[in-house]
Write a structure and sequence with these properties.
- The structure is a single chain.
- The protein has 255 residues and is an alpha/beta fold.
- 34% of the residues lie in helices and 23% in strands.
- It has nine helices and 14 strands.
- The strands form three sheets. The chain has a six-stranded mixed β-sheet with strand order 1-2-3-4-5-6, covered by helices on one side.
- Helix 5 runs antiparallel to helix 6.
- It is globular, with a radius of gyration of 18 Å.
- Bound molecules: zinc ion (ZN) and fe (iii) ion.
């Protein structure tokens, strides 16, 4: 049983992702950032689109829904909490829901904060998660609709996934995130090494993604807000995890 995954750039800094089950032909687009880029990727792979999985309502994740559905007849699955804001949605899913995609079970995690209804998709058998704009490599989404506490709880949910889970995210923000992360943890050796790796990749115009849960646990200051060394570095040894997260998020917003 093989789930093939193809990541490609879309718009200015989004990623499109196609997943394909070789046995059933199921092909899903994770979000729908740019119709032309997605069609080109489908053509290059020789795959026929059967599903779109939306993570949240923002236009850079949903703008291709209607056109791709009209052209391919694909089914669109997306967050219960944002159904009214997502074009051409067929199925609404929320926390704890599980659905079948080809021969794979997909688990739905609600990960609100960036938007109130944001969801992530986890496919245990393929050890892969699609987290939209909740988590980025060494970063996280801006907290537009929710609270810091809500966003921290969402990151804590992602922290709990198996460490070897591959994580696909919505945007290539990695280099700027690394630079900021070093202001929080200048002495984190894993972070320094990863920042150098990322500079090399971006210097060759290569993607820095997907990431893994293990890499984020070691280098992402937002995901590490519960770690005593991060709390100490911020002079907040006794603060709640979400308050430390909030301080880091506020600094990044103002950076
Ligand atoms: Zn977004
Ligand atoms: Fe986005």
């Amino acid at each position: 049983m093989t789930l093939k995954i193809h990541q490609f750039p879309a718009r200015s800094d989004n990623y499109g992702v196609l997943i394909h089950d070789t046995e059933t032909g199921m092909t899903a687009s994770i979000d729908a950032p740019e119709v032309s880029a997605i069609k080109q990727a489908l053509d290059a792979k020789g795959w026929r689109l059967t599903h779109i999985l939306n993570t949240h309502h923002h236009q850079d994740h949903t703008e291709g829904n209607a056109a791709l559905k009209e052209e391919t007849g694909c089914e669109i699955i997306g967050p219960l909490g944002e159904a009214a804001k997502i074009p051409a949605l067929d199925h609404q899913v929320g926390e704890g829901d599980m659905f079948r995609l080809g021969n794979f079970d997909v688990q739905v995690l609600e990960t609100p904060g960036h938007t109130l209804g944001h969801i992530s998709y986890f496919i245990p058998e393929a050890k892969v998660a699609f987290v939209g704009d909740t988590m980025f490599a060494m970063g996280c989404g801006r907290v537009f609709e929710g609270s810091h506490e809500m966003m921290w709880n969402s990151l804590a949910k992602l922290r709990a996934l198996p460490a070897d889970t591959s994580v696909y995210v919505g945007h290539e923000y990695t280099q700027a995130n690394a630079e900021f992360a070093l202001t929080i943890e200048p002495d984190n050796a894993a972070l320094k090494a990863r920042a150098a790796e990322v500079d090399a990749l971006r210097g060759q115009d290569k993607p820095t993604l997907p990431t893994t849960i293990a890499k984020e646990l070691a280098t992402n200051p937002f995901v590490r807000a519960c770690e005593p060394e991060v709390k100490a570095a911020l002079g907040m040894p006794d603060a709640a995890d979400w308050q430390v997260f909030g301080e880091i998020r506020t600094r990044k917003d103002n950076a």
